[in-house]
Each structure stands twice: as structure tokens, then as C-alpha cells.
Write a structure and sequence with these properties.
Elements (H helix, E strand, L loop, with lengths): L1 E3 L2 H12 L2 H4 L1 E6 L5 H11 L15 E5 L5 E6 L8 H12 L3 E6 L12 E9 L2 E7 L1
Parallel strand pairs: 2-5, 2-6, 4-5
Antiparallel strand pairs: 1-7, 3-4, 6-7
The structure holds adenosine-5'-triphosphate and magnesium ion.
The site of magnesium ion has 5 residues, from α3.
């Protein structure tokens, strides 16, 4: 478990986790509203060399794809605005998980009906306005 005191520290921590992304492929993020999941994702995107990563979560897009300079596909999946993941979306997510060269971060991963693929679980906790606790469960 680590404690971060600024958004920048959370991004720096994300970069350390990013080093493990190629062997692990999927990061499942859960935790309170505003606890830093998107900030962390931005750090991952920076680590992967993605330019112009927009952190806003668009209302109707649950899955955003970015291509890294290495030619990997980085998927940012944000399930916040979804009540339940239906079969069609679950199927789409599984296809992404099974595809070669996919690196995936899923925000609000607890909304997935099933966790069919291994990954790193990261739990975020809002402590106060600038403090967050981040726990990595292997
Ligand atoms: N230590 C910190 N780590 C991360 N973010 C922090 C920290 N301190 C302050 N912040 C601020 O908290 C906010 C975190 O928002 P962010 O969108 O990353 O959270 P989130 O978990 O993705 O929220 P949501 O549940 O809406 O998806 C940002 O405005 C960020 O600047
Ligand atoms: Mg978010």
C-alpha cells in the first residue's frame, strides 16, 4: 500500500506499475469517486508514450483506444456511467483482452459481471482532499 499526496505522485506511481504492463496486460481499478483512477490511468498513458491523452470520460464511450509508439493498443475502459455490463459489451471487452498487443486499464472494474482474465487489481481510497491510498493486489 502506498500513500500519495498529490496527483503528480499518483502519476509517478502509475509509471512504476506501467513497467509491468506488458507481462500483465490488464489493470483492474476500483475505488471511491475522485480517488485518482483516471489520474493513475493518465500516468500509465504517459509511461506508454501516448500523446494527447484526454482524461475526461465521455458520456457514451466506455472504451477508448490509443496506439502506443511501440504499436501496442492501449485501451482505457471506464465503466462509471454504466449500470450493468450487458453481454454485448462484455463480449467486446473479452475480445480486447484476448487480442494480441492489448494493454488495458479498466476503471470501476467491480462493475464487470465476471473476471475471466488475470490482471493486477489496484484499489484506490480517498483519504482527504489531496491524500490517496493505493493498494496493489497481485
Ligand atoms: N494524491 C492524489 N492522487 C490523485 N489525484 C489527486 C490527488 N490529490 C488530489 N487529486 C485530485 O483528485 C482528483 C482525482 O480525480 P480522478 O478523476 O483521477 O479520480 P477517479 O477515481 O477517476 O474518479 P471517478 O470515480 O469519477 O472516475 C483530480 O482532480 C486530482 O487532481
Ligand atoms: Mg475516473
Amino acid at each position: 500500500m502506498i500513500t500519495t499526496k498529490t496527483a503528480l505522485e499518483t502519476k509517478e506511481f502509475a509509471k512504476k506499475i506501467g513497467e509491468r504492463l506488458k507481462s500483465e496486460k490488464i489493470l483492474y481499478l476500483t475505488g471511491d469517486l475522485g480517488s485518482g483512477k483516471t489520474t493513475f490511468t493518465k500516468g500509465i498513458a504517459e509511461y506508454l508514450g501516448i500523446d494527447h491523452f484526454t482524461i475526461k470520460s465521455p458520456t457514451y464511450t466506455y472504451i477508448r483506444k490509443h496506439v502506443t509508439p511501440d504499436g501496442d493498443n492501449f485501451y482505457h475502459i471506464d465503466l462509471y456511467r454504466i449500470e450493468s455490463v450487458d453481454e454485448l459489451l462484455m463480449h467486446e471487452i473479452e475480445e480486447i483482452m484476448e487480442a494480441k498487443n492489448s494493454l488495458i486499464v479498466i476503471e470501476w472494474a467491480d462493475r464487470l459481471p465476471e473476471k475471466s482474465h488475470e490482471g493486477i487489481n489496484i484499489v484506490f481510497k480517498y483519504k482527504d482532499a489531496s491524500t490517496r491510498e493505493i493498494k496493489v493486489n497481485e
